[in-house]
Amino acid sequence: MSTATVVPSMPPAAPSSADANSVLPAVVSGAFLAAMLTATINIWLARRKSREEELDRLRTHFAEAFAAHSAYKEMPYAIRRRRSDAPAEERVRLSETLREIQAKLSYHLAWTKIESETVGKAYADLIQELRKTAGTAMHAAWEAPPIESDAAVNIPPTVIDLSTLQPLETAYIAAVRAHLRRLTPWWYR
Fold first, then answer.
1. How far is CA 6 from the centre of its chain?
2. Residue-by-residue DSSP string for 114-164
3. Between 147 and which of 26, 83, 152, 185 could a Cys-Cys bridge form, CB atoms 3.0 to 4.6 Å apart?
């Protein structure tokens, strides 16, 4: 019988700790970079959404301020077109409407000044001229008899002339546009 020497087989080589130490940081740093990139993108998107919502809120407030101006501007027409068959009720209705509009104008005067000195000044100038011009027209409308015919509903600019408001309306809109443009980032324009 022959004696053969059997060489025990060696188990496969286990990864050395040096190999594990070089792979682990690569995996961890790749995962870390991916997490950091994802977090950065999410933060950027959240800030962008927040900025867009803020700009929308400002646009809405500035438009509401202009709407309050427009409501006051329409009051001379509403007073001239008041119902002649119920003068006492019309006085109360129109006076109450005017009171509500005045409250909105006061709110928007304060709000625009707080939001932007430039926009606040443009709005204050507009409202000052509005109260002077439309106020005079309202005074004349209360003194005039109510309109009783369909043909008289069309009120010519010779009766109510609010054209002096146009340049101030344009200035207010330009001030709002400039303010919003300053708040809009360059990459979003």
1. 87
2. HH-HHHHHHHHHHHHHHHHHHHHHHHHHHHSPPP-SSGGGS--TTTS--GG
3. 152
- Give the pTM: 0.74
Integer Cα distance of 189 and 185 in angstroms: 7
CA distance 142 to 123: 27
CA dist., res. 63 & res. 56, Å (int) = 10
d(CA 168, CA 129): 8
12-54 pLDDT, tens digit per residue, is 655 555 555 665 666 667 777 788 788 888 887 777 777 888 8
Contacts of 105 (CB under 8 A, 6+ apart): 68, 69, 72, 127
89-98 per-position pLDDT tens digit: 999 999 999 9
* Structure token pair of residue 142: 């209360």
Q: What is the C-alpha separation between 106 and 31, in angstroms, rounded?
A: 56
Can you read off the two tokens belonging to residue 62? 């500035």
Tokens of 161: 């002339």
